[in-house]
Amino acid sequence: MVTTIYVSLTMSIIPLGQKAIAGVDANVQSQAASVRPAQIGQAWVYQVRNLYNNLIEDEITEVVTAITPNITIERTSKKYGVLKPEIQSSIGMVISDPYWNPSVHFHDPKPMWLLQSDNNQDFRSLYGVDDGSGYYEWASQFSRIGNETVVVNGKSYSSMKSVETIQFISSDFSQKGNTRVNLIWLDPAIGRWVMREINGAYYDANSGRGGDRYESHLRYELIFWK
Questions:
Q1: Spacing of C-alpha 44 from chain mean position
Q2: Are 45 and 60 in contact (CB under 8 A)?
Q3: Which H or E run contains 25?
Q4: Is the peptide bond before 111 cis (omega within 30 degrees of 0)?
Q5: Do residues 145 and 126 touch, judged by C-beta distance below 8 A?
Q6: How confident is the model over 36-84, as pLDDT tens digits?
Q7: Which domains does the chain have, with CATH numbers?
Q8: In the chain, what are the helix, strand and coil shares in percent, each to the nearest 5?
Q9: Cβ atoms within 10 Å, residue 81
Q10: What is the pTM (predicted TM-score) of this model?
């Protein structure tokens, strides 16, 4: 279970107005070399597991449909049909992230996993949502957990495990103290994660005392890739 954390986004990560990550451009080039380059037709299929009840809720297919000027990954749900696409400026640097509801669009491309060679990395920027209502503060802290061999649906993968802790101002002003945890097992050979866990919490300002709210706790488990 996630505990709601109340923080001020004035915390000292990287001042707004500076480059999102110090030296990110050089690091993207060096780190991206170890991750499979994006090519049209690449695909990944994930089953979506609800970790509150351990049941499979959906199956998502993701396909690379464009690589210039940006990388576009079209997404289809077995349960809901066509979903919003994911858009990256370059491999591992997301501009539009559809794993949120509503989708979020970053002022500066955001790392999807740990890019730098050290064990920690900070990112701070602004994001907007589909309704164009404005930009809101966002802060991520990435930490490397280590290399891990994981078996997913009977197949073994060599992964780099990292955690991203996110604190942000919600576009829904009834939500306060928003935090989210994003756990990723990245396999560079497939160009994406083999598992990804997402959960989060916030305080419902409309409910008064006892207003803690917990978001869905989901794990995306790789079924197939090409």
A1: 16
A2: yes
A3: helix 24-32
A4: no
A5: no
A6: 999 999 999 999 999 999 999 999 999 999 999 999 999 999 999 999 9
A7: 34-225 (2.40.360)
A8: 5, 55, 40
A9: 7
A10: 0.83
